[in-house]
Amino acid sequence: MTNRIGLFGFGVVGQGYYEIAKNDRPSLLPETIVVQNKNKERPHSLQLSFDPKDILNTPHDIGIELISDPIQAYDYVSSLLKSGKKVISANKKMLAAHLPELLELEKSYGGSLLYEASAAAGIPIITCLDCHFAGDHISKLQGILNGSSNYILSRLFQDDLSLSDAVKLAQEKGFAEADPTLDINGSDVSSKLTILSLHAFGRYIPENEILTIGVQHVHAEDVALAKSLGLKIKLIATVQRSQDGLSMYILPALVGESDPLFLVENEYNAAKVTSHNLGEQFFQGKGAGSLPTGASVYADLTKAIKGYAYSYDKLQGAKIKREKPLTASLEVIVSADTADALAPLIGQATIHQAQERYWSICTLATEDLIKHLPAIEANNVSIIALNGSVRQERILDSIQKLENVHLG
Amino acid sequence: MTNRIGLFGFGVVGQGYYEIAKNDRPSLLPETIVVQNKNKERPHSLQLSFDPKDILNTPHDIGIELISDPIQAYDYVSSLLKSGKKVISANKKMLAAHLPELLELEKSYGGSLLYEASAAAGIPIITCLDCHFAGDHISKLQGILNGSSNYILSRLFQDDLSLSDAVKLAQEKGFAEADPTLDINGSDVSSKLTILSLHAFGRYIPENEILTIGVQHVHAEDVALAKSLGLKIKLIATVQRSQDGLSMYILPALVGESDPLFLVENEYNAAKVTSHNLGEQFFQGKGAGSLPTGASVYADLTKAIKGYAYSYDKLQGAKIKREKPLTASLEVIVSADTADALAPLIGQATIHQAQERYWSICTLATEDLIKHLPAIEANNVSIIALNGSVRQERILDSIQKLENVHLG
């Protein structure tokens, strides 16, 4: 049976899928490709449509949505699901915002929705969470979920680049968007964490409820401090389950060499899942790029054709409720150019001076950090989680030594 | 719909599956359990059968085969498939030997056969290879596939235990069989590699064609040498694809700290898959134990009920042919108690003396190593692959230093 496939969008991911299908099974190429921009140069000599109705109002079996605008993406995906179609999407922002409604549409109209490429690009983490943890109880999920942030951190650590130079390089390599804000401020990660948590825990926490600090405030002195401790800084997304619910937070964290996340470099992503039956499972793979992301779309396509659909076992058939995360206490290193920038955040904790910066090691509640986010942003305050990797005394000692180096 | 489930065997893995089902969905507990040994004490107060016909000749929908005898296992699994049943097996020896026939039975009679627990226990590597690499071209697969060997190596490196003490400890912890030979001589790994290669490459290499050296000859001086180089020794299974076919080999190898396999300790397993579209994917999880292995059986059960079957995409619909691996050239460190034990193996390569042992660094063909296996076994010759991790000169230098330590 031939499947009539409609594709929305022909950017980096769409082209990756297209190239894979062309080389593997031309019958899985799209019959119709709808794009928005009539003037954009296109790499293939293809017949393109500019009218979404060419897919939505024309008999297609499968719709693949790979555009960047989440509002339009929701229109297309929900229309297709209302026609009972098989749909594939990679739009993390849209999915994180609308999964509750989309799942209802899937159920009501008998279609299916797959979206492996929306989180951790090439890693089959959604499929694994969905079908390999049956009867298991996941207690923790931790990951590196943004390829361009990780690439930037690798450049800071390996090549001593400045943050702005590293961002430029990530853009040149195609790992960061033209406007890299969503990448470096971690917003992209919170969408992914919302999606993964639904599969891992059967709970839906909208992304705007999650404490999210990206790599935008990581300072050269943070890098020097981590190095002096034999550690690295990674942008770590964490979900931890307790009896009362989930705590969730995304922020740069110190990682030690015995942690498999320590070895995740460049555009790679990773997820570490701790569960009762399986212990610690670890997945690592490319988290950005045309072919890795296109490969997940293509795998979804072959799965959709075979009738595969997510089972959402952890929901146990319940309707999705919007929830808030629990407050968590985080042990962090806070630093800024002025003591005044730290004071409102850290309460009674001591401030240390080193390398013309002001430092404090203290325990902060995610709830309070969320309240202070505008000030953190305005004052370029760096917040790095200790992540259980090292004792406070050792860090203080290293900060003092940074100071000696500078002042001595 | 209720599924009538029949279970063969109630050992470590069977009990793991049973416990998971009992806690999660009692409807997925077996209706019938057939065991062999009437006198064995059983941990649950269950009604057991001793007659396989209670499953084979009685209407069951799903058969789960978790016994150790591969011949009997083949009888049960093939009978069930001939009745068009859904079947789950964890019997790596049986599967590695009989997958070609079993796949034919699956096709002819419309049943299905899943066996995630047969390789790397808790890691969903078979499912991932089967459904996430559609349209991709895997060039290399490398893994740590035996939990007890890896546990033993961790004890040699972390606790300075002797090989025999480490084996005893692995048995006490339940990671090694009562007769640990299949674990420590790597034979268990070759079964797994045969199974994984079918899914990763669409090629069937019977396990007896694969060069297989386990951890049985790893010497305390090998451990000292690796440590002095900042490396570890892991039992690595490798499949490498070239235009002409697959080269495959299993032997202890030096691993450096930038390799994710470096961090795989204790009973954990791992697989590293290199492919055109996805780059390097890495999977790590528990490779032994009642719950991790039982969890893979349970995941298979829930997948089987949903109608999931392996697609064997890489076979592209072709019938399975038995093939031989290509010969590969391996750069190795060979050592033994006498120079005479080395001489027939290493040709013209130089022999060095250190710590009352004789060493040589040379390149050997897998084909030749297979021929010399009886002598390697008889003379307790240690063979460690360099695995691209370090230059010969540095190793020679370290061997000389071992010598100095000893003689100085």
From TrEMBL, chains A, B:
EC number(s) given by UniProt: 1.1.1.3
Segments forming domain Homoserine dehydrogenase catalytic: 124-301
Keyword Amino-acid biosynthesis in record: yes
Pathway the protein contributes to: Amino-acid biosynthesis; L-threonine biosynthesis; L-threonine from L-aspartate: step 3/5; Amino-acid biosynthesis; L-methionine biosynthesis via de novo pathway; L-homoserine from L-aspartate: step 3/3
One Pfam family from the record: NAD_binding_3
Signal peptide: none
One Gene Ontology molecular-function label: homoserine dehydrogenase activity
Keyword Transmembrane: no
Residue ranges of domain Aspartate/homoserine dehydrogenase NAD-binding in the record: 9-116
GO terms classed as biological process: methionine biosynthetic process; threonine biosynthetic process
PROSITE patterns linked to this entry: HOMOSER_DHGENASE
Keywords: Amino-acid biosynthesis, Methionine biosynthesis, NADP, Oxidoreductase, Threonine biosynthesis
InterPro entries in the record: Asp/hSer_DH_NAD-bd, HDH_cat, HDH_CS, NAD(P)-bd_dom_sf
Catalysed reaction equations from the record: L-homoserine + NADP(+) = L-aspartate 4-semialdehyde + NADPH + H(+)
Protein family membership: Belongs to the homoserine dehydrogenase family.
PANTHER family reported for this sequence: HOMOSERINE DEHYDROGENASE
Protein name, UniProt field: Homoserine dehydrogenase
Species: Echinicola vietnamensis (strain DSM 17526 / LMG 23754 / KMM 6221)
